[in-house]
Amino acid sequence: MPKLKTHKGAKARFRFSGGGKALRMKGMSSHLRMKKTKRTKRMYDDTVSVSKADAPRIKRLLPYSR
Questions:
Q1: Can you tell me the distance from the alpha carbon of 17 to that of 49, in angstroms, rounded to the nearest whole number?
Q2: By CB count within 10 A, which of 16, 49, 51, 61 is most buried?
Q3: pLDDT under 50 in the chain at which residues?
Q4: SS3 for 22?
């Protein structure tokens, strides 16, 4: 069985928590920032767990990251 390749786009966008959950950053955070309130910009700082429906696909794209 050959080694699996890591999907580089997924590697840049996702990481895994200590318990194995896939985490992502929120989108829409870098475009048109001046008109957004400080509270809104602060809400983009934290990571969010990936939805349960997408988690198996993310884990398949990143075979050695969990």
A1: 9
A2: 61
A3: none
A4: strand
Alpha helices in the chain, H assignment, sequence order: 8-13, 38-43, 55-61
Cα–Cα dist 46/7, whole Å: 23
Q: Is the CB of residue 47 less than 8 Å from the CB of residue 41? A: no
Between CA 29 and CA 8 the distance in angstroms is 21
> What whole-number distance in Å separates Cα of residue 66 and Cα of residue 54?
15
Q: Are strands 14-16 and 47-49 parallel, antiparallel or unpaired?
A: unpaired
Q: Count the neighbouring beta carbons within 10 Å of the beta carbon of residue 2.
A: 4
pLDDT value, residue 27 = 85
Ramachandran category for residue 42: left, alpha or beta (phi over 0 → left; psi -120 to 50 → alpha): alpha
Tokens of 50: 């990936």
